[in-house]
Amino acid sequence: MKKFTFIIFASLLVTFSIGAYAISSEWVCTYGDSPYGDIEITYTNEDATNKAEIHAITPQKHPIIYPGGELVLQLNSENCFEFTLVVKDYGGNEVGRYSEKPYSPYPECEIPPGGSTEGIEFLTMIVFDAPGNPGTYTLDVYDPQNVLLTTGVIEILDPTTQVSSVSRTSWCTIDDSNYTIILSVPYPVVFEPDNPGEMSVIIKGSDTSAINEMFNQMSMSISPQYAAQISLNESGSPVCSDNECRQDYSVTSSTSVSAIAYVWHEETSISKTAINSKGITLLDLSKLKEIKSKLDELSSTALDYVDYYSSINDNENVMKWQDAYDKVSSISSQKSTLIPVLESREFKISDVVDLINIIEDSQQDIDETITSLSGA
Length: 376
Known about the structure:
Elements: E1 15-17, E2 27-31, E3 40-44, E4 52-59, E5 70-77, E6 83-88, E7 94-100, E8 122-129, E9 135-142, E10 148-156, E11 165-174, E12 177-186, E13 189-191, E14 197-204, H1 208-216, E15 218-224, E16 230-231, E17 233-240, E18 244-251, E19 258-268, E20 271-284, H2 285-311, H3 315-344, H4 349-372
Parallel strand pairs: 13-20
Antiparallel strand pairs: 1-20, 2-11, 3-10, 4-5, 5-8, 6-7, 6-9, 9-10, 11-12, 12-14, 14-18, 15-16, 15-19, 17-18, 19-20
Helix pairs in contact: 2-3, 2-4, 3-4
């Protein structure tokens, strides 16, 4: 079975429960917008023997779909078999084809002899890269007999597009009244030790006192990829006007990765339920500046050694340190052009993608350069 790394912010509520006791305001929430992420489901073949439906499409590294970005298509099916995903452009031309078998509950459809599959829902994930050009694309899913089961449409954004924020809405009921909870997050969330990033929760409803009670029972956290969950701090108190209240939360994590932001309903002191969530992108400006400083220091050191070994006619070490200087200068040059972008907070999609990639790759590049020079 293939192993996939993925981020899922699907429509199912995530619940942590260690115990339970009564609280004064019991309220429940469900996601009111489409559970399918950045995809529109346009067709489901109800007449097909092998029924299946697209459950979600999840961008892996960023909460939006851009050219070349890694995506995960999630399928639910009543039967276990290999699916084929065909990606077509606006003119109906095939631009990609991918196949995969379910990963659960029977990976690769290895059903034990005599095992019953009645009532079982099979889950399949197809990992693929978004086409390299912006525009509208269809996603057609076929069974092994080439029967079209379901179709979806995605919109790939131009990398020069500016996306100010991403958001998701959930619908809640309290005391027989309806309220909406909107999780609104800048794209990306930028922070420094003395200037933490912020994200907001907005609650709309008829009763401001009920909204404030909801906020009293609410908390937020983020789950960065490959890292422990981080709780967020409230920034002041809710600000209300016209049957709407807004609460800001500060982000002080020192990491630059993709993550999931969760809004929690603290049902009791030891039980909570996720009532909203959204994939987000985090950028640590201080980390970028720290890497830039290390690169400048290493660059200066490398150039000093180039001069030294040149003075003693040691051509082998001259070449080694010159190569190191060239590599480090190239990485450092990238940082110099992108730091002003980060400081200005005027981001194109391509800027955010480049920044994340540079921050993820730079430390490895530095370590490899130092290792290559360890014998010098």
